[in-house]
């Protein structure tokens, strides 16, 4: 099971609440013009590191919010020991340094289902 948090392509009147709520939008779809919105870039970025069968780890077990709106999302391949850790942010005004420390021992991860 998977979910897409945005419409792939949306086309709503500008007066409506969700007028730019899609990965790509077309305010005048008959014109052939469309606009690529910012959510497409982090969606594409995440898809570079995981396949559809990969699973998210649970909150506070590899998924959590960081300061200033950033977050960490971890995905695992249920068929192997592969792990991907993705650090995301919508806005960054300065350089950011993130230190990850994983204790040198057996780690237990809990999968979301």
From TrEMBL:
* Origin superkingdom: Eukaryota
Q: Domain (Glycosyl hydrolase family 59 catalytic): give its ranges.
A: 3-48
For molecular function, the Gene Ontology terms on record are: galactosylceramidase activity
A Pfam family of this chain: Glyco_hydro_59
A biological process term (GO) from this entry:
galactosylceramide catabolic process
Cellular component (GO) terms are: lysosome; membrane
Q: What is this protein called?
A: Glycosyl hydrolase family 59 catalytic domain-containing protein
